[in-house]
């Protein structure tokens, strides 16, 4: 066994994964730009944006399973040159994305009573509803765009996904500047302006994706948009059963971090601010692992489509090693330069800054622990999605995050009085259990030959 054996897999993994990493970082940058620019506008508006985007993302997580789940399905169909299956699965994923967006839009339109019921201030809840009533119209283009991203990525056109995502960043900043603050003669709309900017960018990106998918010569044989209105009940059911568990898994993981924000707020405002800084730094490195996870899904799907066990094994080892190496590098940076990283988020002249740096620097140790387990659990999920195994991973995620991670976090933080550090140790515990069980499931299934013979989605 030589390193040369893995060189083709390394090149292919990086060619697929790095543009996807860039796409995820660009999306994150758009969210950061929204937060910063609304923060310049007003404190209440910023609080409303934070709670509104959390509300939006919970619904987005639930609906994104169809677009993510179809990635491995398309990759497998392309690998076995099944043009009909590529068209059927992509179309029905688009159908499900549209149906889901339409069904949940009323929740955003009438979100104020929901936000009041969970204890938000009346002013914040009202502003958040103003935002969501506009931003809700962006859910459909976001979910459909995610499905088209998967379609193009499965054809190894990830560079296009990156450039289209990047194109949205300057447009979003410009529209925010015009509409939030009322520049260039536009009305001053505050959070509503941020929402209009977001929907405009999301719609613009969807138009570009649709145009490229329709134009791409190598994709014309799939006839994706020909008689798009025709229902395919069997495939609709298959994609639904594949995608729903992924959406529920995303909600379980996203909900874990939302709950950690709430519990950190119980400890104190300074602790919550420091927690937010440490969590965002960890989120930046997570985008790298998420891009590699998407590459793992495509590569595993391709191997499944061909029934090529050695190719699947070597590809899985390679993507795991890449993500592990990035995690080790992140651990070193977080341990060696915590104060410098935290300081990037804070005003040195603010009298609160030394206290926040002290708290956040302590949390960076736990953020370092976070890296290896977070990387391995998301790579495990990516590999399993590639082989169309989603139901059991959903159960593993729910148990690991909510029956193990959350009780440990609460018990250490409040029961044993460890505070913020205890809360983060609980997150590490939940993610560690998930990483071990997900990786174990993939490799045990591989050893049995489950992933390289014909199987039903699920």
What this model shows, in words?
The chain crosses the membrane at residues 55-80, 92-111, 131-153, 160-182, 194-217, 238-260, 272-295, 316-337, 357-383, 395-416, 422-439. With 458 residues, the protein is mainly α. The protein folds into two domains: 7-231, no CATH class; 244-458, no CATH class. 83% of the residues lie in helices and 0% in strands. It contains 16 helices and no strands. It has helices at residues 7-41, 43-63, 65-79, 83-109, 112-117, 122-135, 139-154, 158-181, 191-215, 233-267, 269-306, 309-336, 338-343, 353-386, 391-415, 420-448. Helix 15 packs antiparallel against helix 16 (420-448). It is globular and about 60 Å long. The mean pLDDT is 89.
Mean pLDDT: 89
Distance between the termini: 34 Å
Characterize the largest beta sheet: strand count, sense, and whether it forms a barrel. none
Shape: globular
Number of helices: 16
Question: What are the low-pLDDT stretches, counting only 5+ consecutive residues below 50?
Answer: none
The helix/strand series, from N terminus to C terminus, equals HHHHHHHHHHHHHHHH
Helix content: over 70%
Instruction: Work out the radius of gyration.
Output: 22 Å
Strand tally is: 0
Question: What is the domain total for the residues?
Answer: 2
Class from helix and strand fractions: mainly alpha
SS strand fraction: under 5%
